[in-house]
Design goal:
It contains 7 helices and 12 strands. Strand 8 and strand 9 form a beta hairpin. The chain has 247 residues and is of the alpha/beta class. It starts with a strand and ends in a 7-residue tail after the last helix. The chain has one domain: SGNH hydrolase (Rossmann fold, 3-Layer(aba) Sandwich). The protein is 31% helix and 19% strand.
Length: 247
Amino acid sequence: MDSIQASCFQPNMALEGWQSFSPSAMIARMSTLYLLGDSTCAIKRPEARPETGWGEEFPIYLADGWNLCNMAINGRSSRGIMLEGVYYDCFWKVEEGDYVLFQFGHNEDKPEAWRFSTPGETRDNLVYMASNLMKKGAGIVLASPISRRRFKDGHALDTHDGYPAAIKEAAEILGVPFIEMTKRTLTILEETGDEDSKKWFMNFPAGLYDTVPEGREDNTHLRPEGAKWIASLMAAALKEAGLPFMR
């Protein structure tokens, strides 16, 4: 596994914060934004670099008083995180006033039974998980997956079939914000073009990185430049939606 399970980042716990410590500072609880997603969001191990999840680049966008807990894991789906217990770990961590952002869609159609879900099943999985978190007083955000870098005849292709629409339907059922990342990223890929868009993905020639000396042609996973790009797009969309955890 190239990702690290559950890393919680506290952007406001700098050294200066400890130097100015006072008991009253401990009374106000830091709220937490939890990320549940797949490899496009997850924190990577050193040996997997330069691959980078957009969640690793997201803490700079958080408002004061908010932590980020990135529980995204490589290869996971909405079904997989329930069967493996990742969702339930998040459920017991969440407190009233926290938020949970779900982003799946890259692994729902994989053939393994432990992670495969039809679009309708993905919708139902998200509604089940989110509705139970809402009963605890958590806020929910559902985001569609980022587009893969796939081109045909010079045009970017949508490879996610009915999954983004199913995620949007889940958000409508729940009455929670839906962040459309599939169309948003697909439009930018189309505008940027086949060759220039490689800079965002793990698609590069041999000799560029010591950790991957042979090069790679991976059009799903992100390099640091791509993770920064997606984090900035996500931040802009979340801020536009008026989410309270955004700076």
